[in-house]
Write a sequence for this structure.
């Protein structure tokens, strides 16, 4: 009996000290999606720069980048704050690794498709994005894309 009470008490204490499963609130979710969009546009611009019309496309990416620099910086800060709140020792390294994974994923797609096919299919994304205001980019980043999951799920309750 004494052993059962002790085991139950220990189990209760362990449950209280166990970290909750990490999830994103809506702003953190938007931030990761926004950084994914930015990373994908960068890779499209760099991959397609040598294709016909590629320099114009890269120039449009740079325009998007300049017009949304403040928004992308805010997104980075939101995720860094989240990583610190989660107790991560190296939040900047975690963010850098996330951005690298995002860029690598779209780069692998470009390799699998061939540069020509990739650029034909994805170049229009830059042109569309360059015409967007930061508010429109935010609405784009708020969207849940079933085929593009975030590194942490969206919390069901905020």
């Amino acid at each position: 009996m004494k052993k059962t009470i002790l085991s139950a008490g220990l189990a209760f204490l362990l449950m209280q000290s166990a970290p909750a499963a990490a999830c994103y609130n809506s702003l953190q979710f938007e931030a990761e999606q926004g950084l994914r969009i930015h990373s994908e546009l960068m890779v499209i611009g760099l991959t397609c720069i040598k294709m016909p019309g590629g320099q114009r496309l890269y120039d449009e990416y740079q325009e998007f980048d300049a017009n949304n620099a403040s928004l992308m910086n805010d997104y980075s800060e939101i995720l860094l704050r989240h990583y610190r709140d989660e107790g991560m020792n190296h939040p900047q390294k975690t963010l850098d690794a996330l951005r690298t994974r995002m860029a690598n994923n779209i780069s692998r797609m470009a390799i699998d498709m061939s540069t020509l096919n990739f650029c034909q299919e994805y170049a229009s994304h830059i042109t569309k994005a360059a015409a967007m205001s930061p508010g429109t980019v935010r609405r784009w980043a708020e969207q849940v894309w079933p085929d593009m999951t975030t590194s942490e799920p969206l919390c069901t309750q905020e």
About this structure: Confidence is low (pLDDT under 50) at residues 1-20. Residues 50 and 58 are 10 Å apart (CA to CA). Residues 24-142 form one domain. The radius of gyration is 20 Å.
